[in-house]
UniProtKB/TrEMBL annotation, chain A:
It comes from the Bacteria. InterPro entries: DUF112_TM. It comes from Pseudarthrobacter enclensis. This is Transporter. Residues 20-438 form the DUF112 domain. Pfam families: TctA.
TrEMBL record, chain B:
Residues 26-157 form the DUF1468 domain. It comes from Pseudarthrobacter enclensis. This is DUF1468 domain-containing protein. InterPro entries: DUF1468. The chain crosses the membrane at residues 20-43, 55-73, 93-118, 130-148. Keywords: Membrane, Transmembrane, Transmembrane helix. The keyword Membrane applies. It holds the Pfam family TctB.
Amino acid sequence: MDTLNELLNGFAAAMTWQNLLFAFLGCLLGTIIGVLPGIGPVAGVALLIPLTLNMDATGAIIMLCAIFYGTAYGGTITSVLLNTPGEAASAITTIDGYAMTKIGKAGAALTIAAVGSFVGGTIATLGLVAAAKPLGELGLLVGPPEFFALMVVGISLLVALAGKSMVKAVISGALGLLISMVGIDPVAGAPRFTFGMDRLLDGVSFVAVIVGVFGLSELLSYRKGDQPAAVHAPNLRSLLPTGKEWLRSAPAMARGTGIGFGLGLIPGMTGSVSSLLSYGAEKKFSRNRHQLGKGAIEGVAGPETANNAHANAALIPLFTLGIPASPTIAVLMGAFLQQGLTPGPTLFTENSEIAWAIIASLFIGNLILLLLNVPLVGLWTSILRVPSSILTALILLFMVIGAYTINFSVFDVFVMIGFGLLGLALRHLDIPLAPMVLTLVLGPLMERSLRESLEISQGDFSIFTSRPISAVLIGLGLLIVFSPLLKLRKPKALNEDPET
Amino acid sequence: MTTESVTSPPGTGKTARVAPTVLAGIGAFAAVGVYVLVSSISLGLWTSLGPGPGLFPFAMGAVLAAMALLWLLQELRNPSETAAGVDRGLVIAVVVSLVLLAAVMDLIGFQLSMFAFLLYHLKVRGRRTWVSSLIIAVAGSFGAFYAFNYGLNVALPVSTIPFLNAIGL
């Protein structure tokens, strides 16, 4: 009952006209980012953090969360109409989505995708409501050693699952940790790796690094011919699926929700794995599996439901344990910290009203996206007709503003340029970027909990193995890191996923 | 003397080479790892209160150096395929224009510097028409300045040159 009351209070706070406007704007911007090829959700969310600088914490996080799940909706549009996924999680939708476009059923595919996304997102948010209290209370029982061990597990999973080579993923993670250590040491107050520059005493700007590594480097790695082909929006009449298509979609949506929700809880798993597994489930269980690949509605309904259920479920470890499950969630976590909010169990004790308002806004945002996506499909497709030279110029404009406004310093624009070049080099060397973002955000928290643990034990490292929860977690982390030796296989989709 | 290491992948009998860019990358990571390792010792690994500010960087420096070495061994056994090259013209144009923009932004202000930056990317690189280039450049520079300063209350820089500052640039 307590949870219901708090959720209702959350709805009351989320439904002020300002917060509804922020949710609407977030959905709009998120969909645009999802539609645009070349700018992924990680850079997109980081880029738009400056828009929220002078907002109150609730409005700012509502808007950024809406941008985050809006990208999952937007990515579908180009998959269906252009055979080009706007973001990785929608890649599998191209198979049946584009086949439906070729037989004149693009409208039905887009509507089913939007409804599936709504269903998946809403059910996953209900999961967040149910898990928030018990997991949050469990989280309050953990001390610095358990918290450190929990972060070791999160980072181990991401390192083990990211890219093709674990060695390269560890390099990426270590780089992120080292970058997070630039500035004043949080415990002793000594400057580290500042090279005598006063500007580095506060550390390297998180937004400038993310925008550089994910946004600028992606733009720099464009090659000629990357511009998508011409696209035509389906007319409004063709947007309505038939009764038979609704009936065929329902079981696919149910399976997609289960898969996306389950995998969303695991750090390191990305939305693309959920959508791929959901497609695999349709191939195995759907009554119309022989039609998959030729324009079957199940091939759109399942994966699209799964990737949105995944996106919303991935917020559960963040809200309850303070562990980001993916790079985009790590950026969201950075935004939380920037607003003075610490995601994790204390969020529900120290900032309960804000936490529940944000959760309530997830329901509202999913509804806004459903209402926004289908009728405005003509607008989204018109964005794709904007020439790449104009898009590049405008994206660069936002990158410069985004990097500058965090500290109101041109120095951060130089930081963004430097990290853009580093990101380009990492892409060229096939080094995954996801572990770097995660450790960049978690680095200071991880170091603090390690040092606090060792201060408690007076330098005795056995504190991590003598306490049962931390011992189990450390063991789990080691098992994950050494999984290649045990010949445990990871999903192939993660090797090619740009988000990792 | 060549910078490429010549190896034979097991079982193929063919001669494969480790790409120079990969070797340079491995060298750079190893160098950063060793630098962090050495400099973190001077920060202090342990104090009377417990772990010092150098302990965590020391561990990370060691991990980075060790992984670079492991990567080198992997490459020598089985060289990886290198990614497709980048459009160098695009990289140079974007990076140089961004550096110039950042260098003059505090001096001549956001509006003028961004106007010139956008005009370069739209008219010179993008070959858009004068009309569309000017409209987008004005909206992206002067328009963005007013939208951020007055709409979002986020201050973008104005010129430090008194004359330009006096006319609101």
